[in-house]
Amino acid sequence: MIGVLPLPAAPQLLFPFSLQLPQGMAFSMMLTFIAVGCAGMASLWVSGKRGALLPAALQLGGAVAALAARDLVSLLIAWELLTVSGFALIRYQTSSYRLHAALRYFVIHIAAAMLLMIAMIIQARVQGSLAIAMLVPAAQPFAAAAVCIKTGVVPFHAWLVKTYPEVDPDVTPVLAAFTTKVAIISGMRLLQLPAAGIAVLAIVGLISILVAGVAAVRQNNLRRMFCWGLSSQLGYLLLLAAIMQPRHYQLLYGIIIAHTLYQTGMFITLAGISKRYGHEDLRRMLYEARVSWFTVGLMVVFILSMIGFPYTMGFIGKELTKLFPLSRPLMLVVEVGYTLHLLAALKAAAVLFRNGPLSSSRVYLQRPLHHSMVAAGLPAMLTIVFGLLPQLLPGFQLDPEISLPGLVPFMLRIITAAGLWVLLRRQIIHQVAVDLRRDAWFAASPLQAALTKSLLPLRYAARVVHSIGPQRQVLLLLVSVMALHLLLVTLGGAG
């Protein structure tokens, strides 16, 4: 009798390079990326920025590849494609100032990729596979740090709020459309943190909501104000990703879709406003003619979505934070952040939607509406349709367990923000923007002076690290991360 020996099962490929068409809400997210990518590239085309079309297309390709990736190597390659194409976009129309911004962007995102690579190595060593799944506990801190860096939340916000306002205005919509959203979605796919890790991510999100919200209100540069607002909004997304259960992720996808649409359309509109005025200084705009009604309509759509107008996806995103267990002080931070968003919106509206005070120095603009702003029509239309009717999104279904409050809380916030605006309107519009390098700002009180003195060693260390250049910074970061990894392995073995 001849026995039949069973063949051993083929081991799972360590580097499968597997891509698969996304399903459900991930498919809707992919369609959203394609829509905003086409809108951004259309704006570049009609503005005559043809040289930026290739890196913009690579940005779109990297975002779609990140959604379709089924293994960590493919995800890492998608991240790097976003980094390299982002570097090329920032370097578009070469200047030494933009070279510095591009190097800053490149170094920080390479650091995030190195953290993800360390998580990938740990996952492969423990599981023997690189298929995308919830990471093993030892790998999750590195992946969480990488997600926070690429998301651009406080305290990892410097690359976002310093890079986006410095690049060409027509480049900002494409640059801001993909990277941060891909980071949030990657975190949803890879992370399942313990209670302590969830608390850390939630606190990081809350800090970003508050700090970036305050900074947004204090800005007098239009694009910089909305960049700080973007960092604050990303704090909301990180907070929701931390506290929501995986069964609610389809709702979080809907919120990210709404955020992507209005944020891309907003930056396209801001690029048109910048061309019309020839600058982005809100204080100068007070004494210049009002923007066109088409621009006003676009800004109304995007601002209402940003502040969470009732029963839109933005409203759902703001109110979801109340449906999960947060302590009263943390909920107070969320409410304060919401009010700060409203104040920033009122500041932009006061400057752009109405003429400034009568003055002989008012300048009447001769520049017509720039035709590149027509590209903002697609995000505006999709913002209205999917904001009011999210069930039209493929795969979207509102969880029956979730019930949202009515209009009363929203109206109370509107009244609070309006009251603060009436009291602080002059200070909010005419104040000097935040500049932490000014010693006079720190010397305003004994507490601030003491804080400045305590931070001097940290500021000196930051200057030293800055002076060694981006290449040595990457090397220093790599050595630090590897040392941290060895320390964790040693402590884990000792335990």
UniProtKB/TrEMBL annotation:
- Protein name according to UniProt: Formate hydrogenlyase subunit 3/multisubunit Na+/H+ antiporter, MnhD subunit
Q: Name one GO molecular function term.
A: oxidoreductase activity
NADH:quinone oxidoreductase/Mrp antiporter transmembrane domain residues are 69-320
- Give a Gene Ontology cellular component term annotated to this protein: plasma membrane
UniProt-annotated location(s): Cell membrane; Membrane
> Domain of life here?
Bacteria
Give the record's keywords alphabetically: Cell membrane, Lyase, Membrane, Oxidoreductase, Transmembrane, Transmembrane helix
Looking at the keywords, is Transferase present?
no
Its organism's taxonomic lineage begins at: Bacteria, Pseudomonadati, Spirochaetota, Spirochaetia, Spirochaetales
Q: Name one Pfam family in it.
A: Proton_antipo_M
- Source species of the chain: Spirochaeta africana (strain ATCC 700263 / DSM 8902 / Z-7692)
Membrane topology designation: Multi-pass membrane protein
Give the transmembrane region(s).
25-45, 52-69, 75-90, 102-122, 142-161, 173-191, 197-218, 225-245, 251-273, 293-316, 336-353, 374-396, 402-424, 474-494
* Predominant location: membrane
